[in-house]
Amino acid sequence: MSTNNESSVSHRTATSMRDLLCGELRSEHIGQVVRVCGWVARRREHGEHLAFVDLRDHTGIIQCVVDGSTDVRSEYVVQITGTVRPRPEGTLNDALDTGEVEIGDCRVEILSVAEPPPFGLEDRSEVDEQIRLRYRYLDLRRPRMQRNLRLRAAVNRALRSAMDRQGFVEVETPILWAPTPEGAREFTVPSRLHNGSFYVLPQSPQLAKQLLMVGGIDRYYQIARCMRDEDLRADRQFEFTQLDLEASFVTQEDVMAFVSEAVLDAAEVATGVRPGAIPQITWHEAMDRFGVDKPDLRVEIELTDLSALFAESEVRAFAAPVVKALKIPAGAAFTRSKLDALTDTAKALGAKGLAWFRVQDAGKLDSPLDRFLNEQEREGIVTATKAESGDLVLVVADEWRLSVEVLGALRAQLLSPPVGEGEARYVWVMDFPMFDGVDGAGNPISAHHPFTMPHPEDFELLKTDPLKARSQAYDLVLNGWELGSGSVRIHRPDLQSEVFSALGISEEEAEKRFGFLLGAFRHGAPPHAGFAFGIDRLVAIFTGADTIREVIAFPKTQSGTDLMTQAPSTISNSALLELGIRTITKES
RNA sequence: GGACCUGUGGUGCAGCCUGGAGUGCACGCCGCCCUGUCAAGGCGGAGGUCGCGGGUUCAAAUCCCGUCAGGUCCGCCA
């Protein structure tokens, strides 16, 4: 974490007001008269003849010595002029990069006074996030946020450089876009010139970038803001930033190579180490082994299949197509109420129940179900999961999808460390299903989006058994977080019609929603594919943060408010009138 | 829409289970002292709607109900 922030770009730090940055001062500057500017981090008065002022800017802290008293207080903004000199023997400070020197004979000019800050601006002072967000401009002054935002800038720089090197051209797409009722809920913008009509903020530049392919751009990328009016989470804000890209005359392998190059470059810049090639697994394998489509490969333990063991079993709870097990090391110590809570979690996810077995000495099992097991089953549970004394084995018996998903959720909840901890484990997840269940009308739901190209082997399944069809869609996953996803797009109108038909979207409906895209495709669309991944998430993991708010300068709270600006807020009646908008109060 | 956690001087906490004077700790703040500190040190001081409203009780930071705010998660996020 040291190679990144000092940017490789050399730039002029001296200005008309300062000669050097606080953190830059070293022995080589001894003897020079310098001017530095910054905030007063701390003042130490020793009577009326000696005072120390620790001056801070984004590069660090330098100790300034004043021969006399000084009336500066914490966070005053000052310009200090003095002579760089070695610290007296025995007073060097190893904790500071500048600790071998100090600025002596200082003259302090106050540029701004400051109220006492509501909280300490050192990294070590822990402050509730609510307070940090209310005074975000002070929080940003702290070293951790300075580091995070500068790391983010370095990552952006690496991404741009990688895309540029690979022949991609940066194109900006509209922020004011047309409503396309499909997918994530959009933010709506009323039109002043066309009262009663609305723009929306793009949930992603998806359609725009496909039109750029029709437009012959060949390789497009953008560091793009996306807006989705959906509920917020630790890894989700209304607004987030993606590296968005699309390329023509490519296969999914080409796109994955482009993305890998960019991500590995960014990782190298951020961590100093270039990760190895990113492994690939199929969606089915991910679900079967880890129970999720975004597996955390830092966790060694996988799901164990016990279907064969219980195929002929008398145990009625395990009479199901699939029986899956998950070992929780040292889980035998879980209390009964904890196990009950886990059972509730499993049921909330759709399981009929959750069987648990505490593994005791000599392979004995402690479980309400133990008395129903025969010796072979008892042994099988322990050997198949490689459980040892003190471990816990959780078992779910149901349809395949449900069994693996329930245990996958428990695996993530019980075994995954915080996302930013430990090594970074990337994985490509391939061959997603085309459709993910059916809607109320019995029509399949697009797993990715309706322009996703089916898997070449599964074209026929579209008509015969669409829910079994795979797509050419792929996700990039890091430590259990979905970084992003992409797909090969459909560029042939006939195939697009088939997919719309499978989705239960009529020709008229398709024309109404996506007419401009379908029209473009009738004018010569190159085969194309693309990807987009979340930069907030990537940088959060690089910094070791467990929420993307730590890498966003001005994030919103979980309820979508801004504690600093008080947004969202009402607007004047005249503003509403101009927009042709009337507000209503919802009945409670 | 739902579940759970949190809310006590400026900040971070303890106190709550088991009701008894807003009682305590650390940091910060203000004043005085202090010529080599660096999370300086010494002495003194100020600072409180215990998120808000209601209820129970002789008595509520503490118990109950509601509500607001923040967080984690489910739903949602093609």
Write the layout of secondary structure elements.
Elements lengths: L32 E13 L5 E7 L2 E7 L10 E10 L14 E12 L16 H6 L1 H4 L3 H23 L3 E2 L16 E4 L7 E4 L4 H9 L4 E9 L11 E10 L3 H20 L8 E3 H8 L13 E2 L16 E7 L7 H13 L6 E5 L5 E2 L8 H11 L6 E7 L1 H16 L10 E5 L4 E4 L5 E3 L14 H4 L8 E6 L2 E8 L4 H11 L3 H15 L6 E7 H9 L29 H7 L9
Helix pairs in contact: 3-5, 3-13, 6-9, 11-12
This protein binds one RNA strand of 78 nucleotides through strand 1, strand 2, strand 3, helix 1 and helix 7.
Descriptive terms for the model:
alpha+beta; OB fold (Dihydrolipoamide Acetyltransferase, E2P); 22 strands; RNA-binding
Overview of the structural elements:
27% of the residues lie in helices and 23% in strands. With 588 residues, the protein is α+β, with helices and mostly antiparallel strands. The protein folds into 3 domains: 91 residues, OB fold (Dihydrolipoamide Acetyltransferase, E2P); 214 residues, Bira Bifunctional Protein, Domain 2 (BirA Bifunctional Protein, domain 2), CATH 3.30.930; 116 residues, GAD-like domain (Gyrase A, domain 2). Strands 6-9-10-22-21-20-17-11 form an 8-stranded mixed sheet, sandwiched between helices. Strand 2 and strand 3 form a beta hairpin. Helix 6 packs across helix 9. It binds one RNA strand of 78 nucleotides through strand 1, strand 2, strand 3, helix 1 and helix 7.
The CATH topology annotation of the largest domain reads as BirA Bifunctional Protein, domain 2
> Helix count?
14
Query: Number of folding domains?
Result: 3
- Radius of gyration from CA coordinates: 30 Å
Helical content class: 25-40%
Biggest sheet, spatial arrangement of strands: 6-9-10-22-21-20-17-11
Q: Please provide the count of β strands.
A: 22
For the terminal residues, how far apart are their CA atoms?
Answer: 51 Å
Identify the CATH homologous superfamily of the largest domain.
Answer: Bira Bifunctional Protein, Domain 2
**CATH A-level architecture of the largest domain:** 2-Layer Sandwich
The global form is: globular
Unreliable runs? 1-10
Structural class: alpha+beta
CATH class of the largest domain: Alpha Beta
Proportion of residues in extended strands? 15-25%
The largest sheet, given as strand count, sense and whether it forms a barrel, is: 8 strands, mixed
Q: On the 0-100 scale, what is the average pLDDT? A: 93
